[in-house]
From TrEMBL:
Pfam families: Peptidase_M24 (PF00557). It comes from the Eukaryota. It comes from Lachnellula suecica. Residues 266-481 form the Peptidase M24 domain. Signal peptide: none annotated. This is Putative peptidase.
Length: 499
């Protein structure tokens, strides 16, 4: 507790001017001496064990610049070994994905899969929405159309891929360097044409009953995903296509990761955890949530990872799982820090969360020191352990052939049995890959999804006590063929001082 806090409480400190009001020099000195003595006595009576401020955090950098340098230096000093097994995906990985999609279309009795630039387009052809239109998603449809075909030599089902594109954009589309082994197949449409009718006419002879032009054509069955905008879906439906939503084997293609994908997911998530730990060691009193966020983001960037969200919450701010406050809360010794952060590496996402005490709050080493902690700290320790046990139980349930619901239920039971059931306010986890949040979703009602080897999930149980604090632990887990999941975040947290 510092001088400014004490004097603000007593009404003799002016935060606007940073000065003591109405006090002479001698009186100010005396007040300072008395305040110092009271602070020391308070600390001794509160903890009953030695907290030597000259030792705790004596080397902490008390400027933002030095804080950031400390964080980055700590991060780089690890050698960044988590990057060693990850690499950009080769063309043949994308070829195999599209062929897997073609086989799934046959299994689901669907004629074609159509997507516009976004996460799914990125998965199959390495083009995000921003890669195509950096300014905004525009009204001219640029669509990837994947249809199953049979290889005449091998008899294998393969993907036949084409692109519906505005005529004037075809050459720009060619320059995107999409991962295909041969030349790209484009179906151009002019500005005064109906693009959906153009696509339908290109298939006209294939979807006629018995190739008899005198009878009504059969509507091709088209599957789209949740990213497809409504006006495009309606355009397809109004021009002779039978449009259905994402599901079945087609949906599962993206859910089950290859070994190359797994290594990228492992690298970006382990690296994100290592960055949080490196940054934590440099934290000092008085930092704001926003300052911690900015330094953590810059720390991640030195490893080639690009942060895309970073939620830093202190104490009661963390009682709302996704924050919503202005980031100005100040870090103090007993503050519980909750950091939920995600970054991208080679197109794949991290999404991890840690809850911890700052490094300048000493870890108790004996039972008497634990007993001497304040009631609020005691409750923080209790809740931290409950949430960790909930995560552990969710891992026991995250096995092949279990339901997605069973994972949430296992974690929720621990928290409910501990008396905090109403404070666990969200699902326990979600799939993760190119998107930080992707299907399947681990909620207690999702009995329709069976876990399969190769799926990757978050497990992130939490307890949120309004006006007090929040705790969440989040790690990334890989479903295995047999046994319990593999942790893709390096090491799980082991304690509030060891996140």
């Amino acid at each position: 507790m510092d001088e400014k806090f004490m004097l603000k409480r007593s009404g003799t400190y002016s935060p606007a001017k940073g000065k003591f009001r109405g006090l002479g020099k001698a009186t100010r000195c005396l007040a300072g001496a008395i305040l110092f003595a009271c602070t020391c006595l308070l600390a001794l009576s509160k903890y009953h064990y030695n907290w030597n401020n000259s030792e705790i955090g004596s080397s902490a950098p008390h400027t933002i610049q030095r804080f950031q340098k400390c964080s980055i230096d700590n991060f780089l000093s690890t050698g960044l070994p988590f990057l060693n097994s990850a690499a950009p995906l080769p063309v043949d990985e994308f070829v195999q994905r599209r062929n897997n999609l073609a086989k799934a279309l046959v299994a689901d009795h669907v004629d074609t899969f159509i997507v516009e630039p976004g996460y799914t387009f990125q998965y199959y052809a390495n083009i995000s929405q921003k890669d195509w239109e950096v300014w905004e998603p525009e009204e001219r449809p640029f669509l990837m159309v994947v249809r199953p075909s049979t290889n005449s030599k091998t008899g294998e089902i393969e993907a036949s891929t084409s692109f519906l594109a505005p005529s004037f954009e075809v050459e720009r589309a060619r320059l995107l360097n999409m991962p295909f082994e041969g030349s790209l197949d484009f179906l151009p449409w002019e500005e005064h044409w109906n693009p959906y009718e153009t696509l339908r006419r290109s298939w006209e002879t294939e979807f006629l009953i018995g190739c008899d032009l005198t009878v009504k054509s059969v509507a091709p069955k088209v599957m789209v995903d949740e990213e497809m905008r409504d006006f495009i879906q309606r355009g397809l439906s109004e021009n002779g296509f039978d449009v259905v939503g994402l599901g079945g084997e087609v949906e599962s293609v993206k859910q089950r990761k290859t070994q190359r994908e797994i290594e990228i997911v492992r690298a970006v998530n382990t690296g994100t955890v290592v960055a949080v730990r490196a940054m934590r060691e440099c934290m000092y009193p008085g930092l704001t949530e926003n300052e911690v966020m900015n330094v953590l983001d810059n720390t991640l960037r030195v490893a080639g990872m690009e942060p895309f969200f970073d939620i830093v919450l202190f104490d009661e701010d963390a009682s709302n799982p996704h924050g919503g406050t202005d980031g100005s809360k100040i870090l103090e010794a007993e503050t519980f820090v909750l950091i939920d952060v995600g970054a991208h590496l080679y197109g794949y996402s991290s999404d991890i969360c840690r809850t911890f005490f700052p490094p300048f709050f000493p870890k108790p080493t004996t039972s008497s020191e634990v007993q001497a902690l304040s009631p609020m700290v005691q409750e923080k320790l209790k809740v931290w352990d409950i949430v960790l046990e909930a995560q552990t139980q969710s891992m026991h349930a995250l096995v092949s052939n279990n339901t997605a619901a069973s994972v949430d239920i296992a974690a929720r039971k621990v928290i409910t049995d501990a008396g905090y059931g109403s404070t666990f306010t969200h699902r326990v986890g979600h799939g993760i890959g190119i998107k930080a949040h992707e299907s399947p979703y681990l909620n207690k009602g999702n009995f329709n999804v069976t876990l399969r080897a190769g799926m990757t999930f978050t497990s992130e149980p939490g307890i949120y006590l309004v006006d007090k604090f929040g705790v969440r632990h989040e790690d990334i887990l890989l479903v295995k063929e047999d046994g319990e999941p593999e942790v893709l975040t390096g090491l799980r947290a082991t304690g509030p001082w060891d996140p």
